[in-house]
Amino acid sequence: MPVRVGIFGYGTIGKRVADAVLKFSDEFELVGVVKPTPDYEAEIAVSKGIKVYTYSDKLKDFEKLGIPVAGTAEELLDKVDVVIDATPGKVGKEMKEKYYAPRGKPAIFQGGEKADVADVSFNALANYDRAVGAKYIRVVSCNTTGICRLLASFLLHGLKIRKVRVYLVRRGADPKEHKRGPINDVVPDPVTVPSHHGPDVKTVIPEINIVTMAVAVPVTLMHLHMVNIEFETNVTREDIIRMLEETPRIMLVPTGKRMDSIAQLIEWARDIGRYRNDIMENCIFEGSITVVDGNDVYLSMAIHQESIVIPENIDALRAMFKLADKWTSIEKTDKVLGLITSGKKYKF
Ligand SMILES: NC(=O)c1ccc[n+]([C@@H]2O[C@H](COP(=O)([O-])OP(=O)(O)OC[C@H]3O[C@@H](n4cnc5c(N)ncnc54)[C@H](OP(=O)(O)O)[C@@H]3O)[C@@H](O)[C@H]2O)c1
Fold first, then answer.
1. Which CATH number does the domain housing residue 266 bear?
2. Active site residue 148
């Protein structure tokens, strides 16, 4: 019998996770989603055949707009084996205390929650096995997911990392967030060092020596990371490219084909017919990969914040219910969701 899934929150992440869960109907059944506000997003969910639930004090609001509701949040909880929480940052912790834990429901949280909301902070490539059988899992944020995948690529290939420095240019808002900025600014975000991303990577890869700094800019398309990794031993540019090519969920963006910016990457995603122009892979600009002094590696990578964590949510479900081992899970997720890597089959 498929694992019955309920999703709390149907925004940027929740709606993408819902669409992804529907693609794995042999393993998971999407019982419904919870949304407090009746709006076009709720209406689209209904039009896709997704059952929408809400809180009892919101039922009337839905009724007024003629958006059908399948029941209350509590009723959804009674029908599911697991919750995927995609509510705004920090709300998930409240939801856990008020709704999920009292009913004994396991839950998968997102990166806007603090690490202590869950038993394990998760990235499939870096620490799938730690999440096997866990009751509460936190899929780390978009930026942390991107950094963890990159570092996991080198660690899985047996390289020893001395230190990592990442400078993040963060998108100011998601495309739909019409009230957020900055509009005309570059904002140290945060002004203090490190930004939360480095410590967050350590919740997944504890031994790593990493410092991150971030600024937010007036862009909604993707984040851009400028990465510097110092290895214990010498590597060549060709070694780095080969390792990245062999790693799932990492895409090398060729130089010379006018795919040298995040706008061009998003246009590429549109042109090849990616739904919502989602890019679930880390996009590493091949031309940026440079080795200095034998062991000091530099590269730039773009991260599509709206979609990069979707594969990890599917893998987290499988790990929680012990449905597959790490590589079987990653391979199936990527095949069904249509991710591409640089084409070489990985073998670790
Ligand atoms: N967007 C990103 O770039 C990104 C990337 C990776 C991870 N994350 C993380 O993913 C999580 C969700 O972020 P998001 O960007 O998807 O947020 P979002 O677009 O603002 O969506 C949040 C959703 O949660 C719903 N919601 C609010 N309070 C709720 C409650 N008490 N119960 C049930 N649903 C509730 C909202 O419904 P209404 O619209 O009806 O109010 C909305 O559908 C956060 O932890 C965030 O940090 C976000």
1. 3.30.360.10
2. no
